[in-house]
Amino acid sequence: MSTLDVHNRSGDVLHEKVLADAFTDAEVNGPVIHQCVVAYLANQRQGDASTKTRSEVKGSGKKLYRQKGTGRARVGDAKAPHRVHGGVAFGPKPRNYRQHTPKRLRRLGLHSALADRFQNQQCILVEDFTLEQPRTKNIVNMLKALNADGKVLLILDEHSPNIHLSVRNIPKVNSCTWNTLNVYQVMWHDTLIITEKAAEKLESKFLNTGSDTEGQDS
């Protein structure tokens, strides 16, 4: 069993939380994490870049001047790719970059990513809390008290509009709920701040294969 301290927003340790070794000390599968991250980034691409070929460029198809006798290089029409304002050879066309990642692979990738963060002491547990109104200063003070530097992800057990609004004003600090978490989010951030209930739900998700809620496609 892994034991982690649970802090309050002032940085004080309230009590200890015991998490199963099967959750926190699982084997980290690097290739699967890489595949999930690549698929997630590919799925963010719009794929709407488009250029015109020589058949689509507006212009005359007449040969500009005769083939021989001018002492100049041979040319075709004004729409040839090597001429200014001509068509583009092998340019991009709208396409779908989406990669399908099986559910079991996404699950393994997310479990591996979280295990990597736990094993490298990059996870901080905090008590469950709410904000009566959006207040960025409260989140900033909490980050300072917890010594959370760099890119920080706050993982909540349920959606909290006030916390979300408070976090989004802070550069490189984001928030999400435990069931929308994906591999890219875990790997992009340096530190994960997880509420106690969110940690329990994540633990239950990966230890109970029969009932879980999948996050975003990654």
How are the elements arranged and paired?
Elements: E1 2-7, E2 13-19, H1 21-24, H2 30-43, H3 103-119, E3 123-126, H4 136-145, E4 152-156, H5 161-167, E5 173-177, H6 183-188, E6 191-195, H7 196-207
Parallel strand pairs: 1-3, 3-6, 4-5, 4-6
Antiparallel strand pairs: 1-2
Helix pairs in contact: 2-3, 4-5
Structure description:
The chain is built from seven helices and six strands; from the N terminus they run ββαααβαβαβαβα. The protein is α/β, with parallel strands linked by helices. Strands 2-1-3-6-4-5 form a six-stranded mixed sheet, sandwiched between helices. Strand 4 (152-156), helix 5 and strand 5 (173-177) form a beta-alpha-beta unit. Helix 2 packs across helix 3 (103-119) and helix 4 packs across helix 5. The longest helix has 17 residues, at 103-119. The chain is elongated, with a radius of gyration of 26 Å.
Shape: elongated
How are the strands of the largest sheet arranged?
A: 2-1-3-6-4-5
Q: Major sheet, described briefly?
A: 6 strands, mixed
User: What proportion of the residues form beta strands (DSSP E)?
Assistant: 5-15%
Task: Provide the residue-averaged pLDDT.
Answer: 92
Task: Name some characteristics of this structure.
15% strand; 6-stranded mixed beta sheet; 32% helix; alpha/beta; 218 residues; 7 helices
Write a short abstract of this structure:
The protein has 218 residues and is of the alpha/beta class.
